[in-house]
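Step 1: inspect the first sequence and its tokens.
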Amino acid sequence: MYDVCIIGSGVVGSAIARELSKYQVRVALVERAEDVTQGASKANSGIVHGGYSAKNGTLKAELCAIGNRMYDDWQNELHFGLRRCGSLVVAFDDQDLEALGRLYENGAKNGARGLKILSAAEVRSIEPNSSAQIKGALHCSTAGVTSPYELTIALAENAVRNGVALMLNHEVTAIETANHFTVRAGNTAIEAEFVINAAGVRSDQVARMVNAADFEITPRKGEYILFERGYGGLVNTVVFQTPTKNGKGILVTSTYHGNLMIGPNAEEVSDRDDAGTAEESLKEIIATARKSVPVFDLSKVITNFSGLRPTSTRKDFIIEESSVPRFINVAGIDSPGLTSSPAIALRVLEILKSAGLVLRAKSAFQSLRRGIIIPKSLEPAELKRRVELSEGPERIVCRCEQVSEAEILDAMGRGIPIETTDAVKRRTRAGMGQCQGQFCRPRVKALLARELGRPVEEIHVRRDERATEGRPGRAFFQRLAAAERAPDISPERRRQTVGGHGGD
């Protein structure tokens, strides 16, 4: 029997769990996947938004501005990675400039800080690689970048350390209501006084299990292109284009770890597991991103991916006790959900208190969590020596990202089961380098097999090995890059050159 059952371990569900773990409350965090952060929380832009874009008067506007201000405290406690680099919304014509003025006014009403309208010359001084066609920009100094999956893992780790029961591989199939809730998840019956529905793109399906769905979720897919680490220095801020009705549009940014990233587009899809990308979409992202920053080199692309945003029919966050008492919907958390998540967690606690949950503070709450990744810059000879070690904490398992055996073992000992190479990758970056795991994946598998006491054949990249089938490979981007370096060939020949899927 639990006081609260949270369905969904994305950034919102994990933030709520961590906030509840400060109190004498029995909490279960239930997740259908084999790890936390498997939905939109691992496949998004990783932007801490300034709070100027959401329409004033909405929950998005209110909670984004509050959440932005809470991130520094989170970083100081959880050490997941945060850089306040600022953002630019760039304008290409007079119509865009007028839109920037409206964004500025809206941001001021929302309580966004650090806003300023810049001239074209000021934009170029901040972003020397930006387009000469830019006529001005809205600058927000308080925006930044974070590592969204590392943040979610940090929240979940800290929640588990403080007593939350995490149940992975538990897909909720039914919820029964009586004096309390019985949540059926796999072969487990989880009894709870309160249920929080933070199930992302499946939140309407979960709400329908108790006849509490007065909204629908439409998954909106966004595709991204990621360049090698170190290439993020091409830009100094997060560079947005003037928003459209479909969202904030194509951005160009450095990730927290220094990769360049461009995207996302916006496409409504029906398949709630659609993680695919398409050549035509990626070409459109490239062309649109070049309007802002023309000079990026496609030969430096290392991968592409997509994420699904849970867009609701209400067009705003849904954070409320539903028509079913003590069943709380936290749904439709699309952008700026990552930024808003600290404030969303506090809002949910207020709803729980109003619904009758008694919150008594724990005297032994542990707020601090050590980071896992240890930055290194090893000399070639030392790197070679540590790569060639047969075992031991010093041994380098991932050559590209210089990840040691000690870091992987540390990640495995933090209360969340780790059974796949992708789970190791999200925590340590082993496999995120230029070779994309070709060198280190067998070594990570062998290490997991040793620690878990399993045959190496039973260690997988992820539970669903087909999840990334059909994505264009690096060869696709290499052909695009080669075509760009050969402007003398005819347009028809260029089309032939860049056609077809990559093979790796």
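Step 2: inspect the second sequence and its tokens, then contrast the two.
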Amino acid sequence: MTTAKIFYFYIVRCADNSLYSGITTNLKRRVEEHNSDKLGARYTRSKQPVQLIYNETFSSKSLALKREWEVKKMTKKEKELLLAL
């Protein structure tokens, strides 16, 4: 029996208070990668440590990517309002 893969859209807060968002299938591993010197996104490497502050789950990669695109278009103020919900 095959289990369906879960995709996560997530937001991390960087040490400089900036926000970074992405998608993954493993939140714990990805946050650890963002806090590593070699595996993190170029943006987060110089802004460590990062802390996971928000996530949503999706049943498909395309839905997670769509949500990421929606949020990345938001201003920081709009993102902070989303985080406050």
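Step 3: confirm your contrast with the notes below.
The longest strand covers residues 51-58. The mean pLDDT is 93.
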